[in-house]
Amino acid sequence: MNSGLLLDDCFKEHRTGAGHPESPARLDTVRHALERAGLIACTTPIAVTEVADRDVLRVHDADYIERIVKTCAAGAPHIDAPDSAICPRSYEIARLAAGSVLTAVAGVMEGRWKNAFCAVRPPGHHAERNRSMGFCLLNNVAIAAEHLIREHGLAKVMILDWDVHHGNGTQHSFEERSDVLYISLHGHPAHVYPGTGYENETGVGPGEEFTLNLPMMPGSGDDAYRTAFDEKVAPLAESFAPEFVLLSAGFDAHRRDPLAPIELENESYAWMTRWVLDLARRHSGGRLVSLLEGGYDMQALGECVALHVGLLQEAST
Ligand SMILES: [Zn+2]
């Protein structure tokens, strides 16, 4: 079996304007890197699919969705904050991103591919129930986790988020629940956007202990991440024993990235990928879908996505 790969030029149609770091060119970089590595030919393409309203409305309020539709139609340059840049087609493209991730998830559940990587934009993990944040419109990974629970009947879904920014929207979607384990490693909120994800945010009520935040101080690198995985991530993930693993794969904790002060190397993304694939192999029958979040240095993004997808494909065969 192969890995599934979602890579389509339609996701370049979400236009964010000159100079915005979350640019359509990021997907050209991903495509060229995967082509060079021979990974487009050997993976199975995933069809672009529009998300159903019911999937969106499990995670987002109807009046927020109406607001996005109107704001895009009005030709506004951004929604909620200047960094969430939009164009008239942005909502349409965001619906295709979320829906295509659900197709990736369904393909794993049905055994069409063992795991999948989704090179989507706009990204999703900052998007809250009722507002856009940090370049994100719809919370793709939260929509996927809800879909797995409601439509596929799963009881335990894990979301690992190694984007350098805390996935506030994802945490808030599930922090009161015990069926979704959310684990995030990110730059310390005192120094890095969005200013949430302190270690003492561990879940609420029945969700207590089902949120794990591991803030990293500026200058942290591979050693700090390895220690965090060994001492904190592994024990919790092992005891949770997920039936499906979703990965918010940002590549902006790389030392070359311009948006945050964390110092991971290419090899860090390789071992973290091996680690999460091994967890999925032992607990979820290898079922894993990885979604692109951030990553703004073009060289680091291309190299790390190629390593990441290469390891996903290797684990599929
Ligand atoms: Zn990020």
Overview of this structure, please?
An 8-stranded parallel sheet has the order 2-1-5-10-9-6-7-8, sandwiched between helices. The chain has a two-stranded antiparallel ribbon with strand order 3-4. Helix 7 (168-174) links the parallel strand 6 (157-161) and strand 7. It starts with a strand and ends with a helix. The protein has 10 helices and 10 strands. Helix 1 crosses helix 10 (298-316) and helix 9 (266-283) runs parallel beside helix 10 (298-316). The model has no long low-confidence stretch (mean pLDDT 98). The chain is globular and about 50 Å long. 56% of the residues are buried. With 317 residues, the protein is an alpha/beta fold. It has a single domain, classed as 3-Layer(aba) Sandwich (Arginase, Chain A). Bound molecules: zinc ion. The site of zinc ion has 7 residues, from loops. Zinc ion binds at residues 163-165, 250, 252, 293-294.
